[in-house]
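Session log. Operator J.P. requested a structure for one protein chain; no other inputs attached. Running the standard single-chain path with token output.
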Amino acid sequence: MISIKSNIFRLLLIQYLLILSPLSCPAQGAIPLLHAPFNITAKFRNNFCNLQRQVYNDNVAIADYLRGQNINVYLDNEVYAFLGNFYENKTINDKDPGVMIEILDEVARRAGFSWRNSYSAYSLEDSGLKTYTEYAYWSANAYDVSVSYWDRTAERLAKGLVFPQAWHDESIIMVTLTNGESGIDLLSFTKPFKPSVWWAILGTVIFSGLTLLFLSRLEPNTREAEGAQTNILSSFWLAAMAFTGNIEFEAVSCGTKLLSLSLSFWALLMTAAYTANLASFLVIKNSPFPVSSMEEAVRKQAPVCIMKSTNHVDFVSTKYPGAVLRPKKTADDMLRDLRNNQCSIAIFGKQEYEIAKQKKELNKDCRLTTVGNSLIDLPAGYAVVHDSGLLCTSLVYHVLDLHLINMAADGFIQGTWEKYFEMLDQPDCKSGLTIDIDAPESSLGINDMAGIFVLHFLISSVAIILPAIKKCMSKCYAKRKLDQTEDSNEDNSPRIEQSVILNESVQRRRVNSSYLSRSETQGSF
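Structure written below.
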């Protein structure tokens, strides 16, 4: 009798332990109540471990892992109606449910699971949590699937979240407003170079003109070739013309040849840089922006609107610690501050910007535009907690990932986006304007152009030094030759005197002879 009771007790104990075992937990968890108040400790995740074991044993195809199952889902109702369309009581508007819900419905149809009767809808404000990263982590741990456009970031992956194939592009971009048509800018032609470069150009022209004048006075060949063009005004004019690419003076000597070579090369690079940069300014002439990059916004301390508590705040504040950020609650708040000049630029997700740009109420004057490339590329979509052993929720991740990849490949996701874009009350824009400015600075500074100025100065210095050395050597040689001539004249002076005396004696004799001859001739008559 005791043995029978002991065996019954053992059987009951084993059954109890099996019930508590994760692999023997009921497959269906508690069903979430749509209108229940937010409870941060509530858990609505199903146990998929039995199903996972059957998958391993029966070799079920991944696409059919969840067929016949009911999935408990969290829905983010703090999104545009374009993405998730809810009534005030948080039920779904089945006529136009929104992009993220239609995509989930299609995944459920293809995978064969249900979810419409087992979901909750809350917002970050309902939860009382501080950031969307905390919110994403909570929702994925409380439900089988957290449905929103969660950014796939390293921080969230490190917290144990996994993200199936993205259906939303949350790449961080800078958004601003075009200023429309601008007035006449009489000095717009100076914009390709900073003032420091223009002052350096003026100094180079003056220096080159003085160098040319010096060489024309120093080298006789240059003076003869240039003729009357050797005064200071002519020299400055010739140097200034060289800046435009016209070398008017004739290089006939060593110094002027070096100067013309250096000046020509300097003019070539300067005009090329000016022309290229002027072209970029002509492109953006009708849409001047307060800033063209985040680096410039930091340097100018320009205010930047950004959605508070988001991953965008973490990224921008970490990469650009000096940025003046003005967190806003909604995208509409950011756009309103842009129009009121409270912010120079606003930080948006790429797909969020596309929605705002194509809504007449947000872009009625078609002034919304982007500046530069995306700061970082971020895919976004649903979130699931990584769990392959406790409740085996990773099974859900694999099914969603497979079907979402197929839906992206066959065009269903893109088609859903396009269908909802067509439903928007779009602004009547004749043409969109998106300016892509990669460089932090458009105007070239003296640091960018210093090399060519230094090179021209060095070559010009050589052009001055070589003729000066040649001139000095010529003078020294001429003086030495003159000295040698004078010395030779002094050595030959006694002989010259003797020769003069001898010549005088000979001349006197000739005169006397001539006189005697005339006397004899007269006597004979």
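Operator note: The chain is about 50% helix and 10% strand.
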